[in-house]
Amino acid sequence: MEGTYYRNLSEPLTSLKGVGPAAAKSYRDLGVVTQSDLLQMRPRAFEDRSRVQTIDAAQDGQFVNTKVLVTGHSYFGGHSFRDRILKIQVQDCEGSGARLQLLCFGRNFLERSIEVGGLYYLYGQITRYKGQVQCSKFELHPAPVEGMPPQFGKVLPIYPLRGSLSQRIIRRDEATVLSSVALFREELPDYLRQKYHLLSTDEAIRQLHQPSSMESEDAARRTLAFGELLYMQLFTRRHEGSTRPEIRRESAPYPLELRLIASLPFSLTPDQMASLKEIRGDLDSSRPMNRLLQGDVGSGKTLVAWVSALHVVSQGKQVAFMAPTELLARQHADNAAKLLSPFGVRLAYLTGAVKGKERTLLLEQIAEGNVDIIIGTHALFGKEVVFKNLGYVIIDEQHRFGVEQRYALTSKAEVPDLLLMTATPIPRTLALTVFGDLNISTLKTMPPGRKPIKTLTVSEASRERMYRAIATEFERGHQAYFVYPRIDDTGESDLRDVTSMYEYLKKEYPGVSSALMHSKLEEEEKMRILEDFKAGNITYLVSTSVVEVGIDIPNATCMVIEHAERFGLAALHQLRGRVGRSSLQSYCFLVFGNDLTDVGKQRLRAMKESNDGFYLAEQDLLIRGPGDIVGRKQSGFLNLQFASLTDDLDLLQQASQAVTQLLKEDPGLLRPEHAVIRQTINESPMFQGSIA
Ligand code: ADP
Ligand code: MG
Questions:
Q1: Residue 631 CA neighbour count, 13 Å, CB half
Q2: Looking at ligand 1, which residue's alpha carbon is closest to its atom 15?
Q3: Do strands 454-458 and 587-591 pair parallel, antiparallel, or not at all (unpaired)?
Q4: What is the average per-residue pLDDT within 346-360?
Q5: Who is most buried in 55, 58, 90, 647, counting CB within 10 A?
């Protein structure tokens, strides 16, 4: 088979003609670094300029696309020459020759370039106002002697923009990449494409960025989405093809597990014990485990992971524990060292930051089986990481990872047991379709002695009161987080950025030790700060939302979230979950700006109403609407580029049917018609590198 996989173009965008450092930076802000990323950038909308629509037919607010004759210029408004606004009169060359006024707010310069008597192609939004037809959002392009200007006669994609990017630049760069590839390699078997009326992969990628009609754009997106859903299910349901009979034995905990439990200063909650029993049963069954451990923030999932890890270690097998960020991986590694080292469990810590000789040595130890539990980030997937006998994979905050990252890791061993941990509940029906026969354990009860977090909304007027309340907490020896949505002031002057607030708070709390934390710091620096915070050497952290996931500092009792209305509910709940992690009374202050929108108001109200992550997830769906919650980069629990788990239920169903049949009839993907799937999995695994 020939062609290039569209995910395998790893050259940076700067390798394209015309993409300089500024554009590359703007692209990076959109998460687009390589040529492949560019191809996977999904237009957020399309402008249909494929057909001429006359002005006669246009409704109020509709965009038209037609050829016009310029009949005159005039000015209106303003008392002085400088304030007046240009008005261009045009007449439709199509239909009944309707007249239209183009209002050139801030564009008086058009007087010179748009000539009276000239013919132009117009694309603009029509407003009907008191019997007049007007247009203030428009583009005019001179009509060529023959044919149409290049922007017409087609469907134009509209991309999300950042910084120096414009639609013109992105379209140009997409075109450069598309024309540099002769053929994109096929990823779907012919029979499935026919059955579900899908395009070839090559057509799909091209039609997504340069659609010839709205219909072909739709077919293109469906094709790419179907591909994602098919490959996702091939992974999540891979064990269904296993023909090994399921044998369940009565499985008892090993002495090592019991010793760990006995060494804890508290006892396990009933839900923790029940989950452990379920997990043990799976681990000792002959079928690979596929289990989701869900529990609200602070419910104690990590401990369940460690105890169950010892079950596998006791059987002489290795365990991989993966966290979404270096910060979190390090925290888990430190905790594991405290909890498990006393029992002689051999631990290793592996992330991208571990380099050189140290890395080589570590990899050797892992390969030789001298390490029992390896804790790290997605670096655990690296091709060079070879396990001696990996038996169990634990993934913390699983919604943060792309599916294939799980694929890559789990394909390293025979099909190890898999435990996914998440604080973001997944509706059961959805989980079943996506993960096949995934089992679910839930931690409902919180560890005893926890007081519910008190959540308060704070307006600018009551800011001072909040500062005083927090000062009292400091006097009691407690700690706090102050979280802001952005790093430095780059124009939006109303946003309190971390750096300037860090200075401000120093004056508010003289003599109280603090530290600044944001994602641009070196990993080492972040970890040092976090350790100091944990040790109590730092009283409060001023931070961006890097502290959102998983950080566990029980002595912190105050969480201040500035511009709370700018965060999603899931993020707010995660942030709030950083406090209330001990028997101390904790507080969450949601500070809101003056420009509070209705959605913002609803979110803050929901946060005040409830401490329950499951309830909030439901509210989030209601407030945002289902189309918004999953399937978007960094927002959902699966990093899908083209498919949406809520809007594409029909495609999900079709992919699910296809996978069921495939696993039943050809689980090894040995038939010739499935070679295309086998090769795609081997040579261009889906979703790679899509970490948020
Ligand atoms: P999460 O579910 O959010 O990952 P963690 O595993 O980080 O929660 O646990 C939160 C805190 O609760 C940790 O400090 C942990 O040591 C503590 N903890 C876990 N289980 C119990 C328990 N049964 N009793 C008391 N504290 C517990
Ligand atoms: Mg956790």
A1: 19
A2: 300
A3: parallel
A4: 88
A5: 90
**Percent residues over pLDDT 90 in the chain:** 47
Distances (CA, A) of 690 to 9, 185, 336, 378, 385: 14, 20, 28, 11, 20
- For ligand 1, whether the C-beta of 613 sits within 6 Å is no
Cβ neighbours, 10 Å, residue 81: 7
User: CA nearest 41: which of 32, 53, 54?
Assistant: 32
Report how far residue 301's alpha carbon sits from residue 321's, in angstroms, rounded to the nearest whole number. 13
| 56-61 mean pLDDT | 86
* Rounded Cα gap, residues 154 and 150, in angstroms: 9
Q: Are 122 and 90 a contacting pair, CB within 8 Å?
A: yes
- Residue type for position 360: T
Residues with CB under 5 A from ligand 2 (ion): 550
Closest residue by Cα to residue 412 from 394, 432, 393: 393
- pLDDT per position as a tens digit, 358-410: 899 999 999 999 999 999 987 887 778 889 999 999 988 765 554 444 444 55
Can you say how many angstroms the Cα of residue 328 is from the centroid of all Cα atoms in its chain? 17
Q: How far apart are CA 359 and CA 338, in angstroms?
A: 23
Lowest-confidence segment of 12-16, 225-229, 334-338, 563-567 by average pLDDT: 563-567
User: How far is ligand 1, taken at its centre, from the CA of residue 581, in Å?
Assistant: 7
Chain centroid to Cα 311, Å, comes to: 33
Q: Find out whether 373 and 316 touch, Cβ atoms under 8 Å.
A: no
Residue 185's pLDDT band, with cuts at 50, 70 and 90, is very high
φ/ψ of 293, rounded to 5, equals -105, 110
Helix (H, G, I), strand (E, B) or coil at 132: strand
Query: Residues 565-612: pLDDT tens digits?
Result: 888 787 888 899 999 989 999 999 999 988 787 778 888 999 999 888
Cβ(299) – ligand 1 distance below 6 Å: yes
State the closest ligand 1 atom to the C-alpha of 396, by its place in the atom list counted from 1: 4
